[in-house]
User: Which sequence fits this backbone?
């Protein structure tokens, strides 16, 4: 589910893999490997993606269909 969600979020926001790679400070091939499942997404990358898209990490992981991020206290 994670692979589908990160691709879906990127495409829904009309972004190229290069755009996300720049944000994450990785090579485009590294980001491509995340989407293809060839390279595991680290917790750090997951958090950065959740913050970038303003969604919960649980949404990206497929644990919920709600995109709403949690309220920080």
Assistant:
């Amino acid at each position: 589910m994670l692979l589908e969600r990160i691709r879906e979020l990127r495409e829904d926001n009309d972004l190229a893999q290069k755009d996300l790679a720049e944000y994450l400070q990785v090579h485009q091939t590294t980001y491509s490997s995340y989407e293809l499942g060839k390279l595991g997404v680290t917790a750090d990358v997951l958090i950065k993606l959740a913050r970038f898209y303003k969604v919960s990490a649980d949404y990206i992981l497929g644990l919920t269909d709600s995109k709403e991020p949690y309220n920080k206290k």
Summary: The longest helix spans residues 2-12.
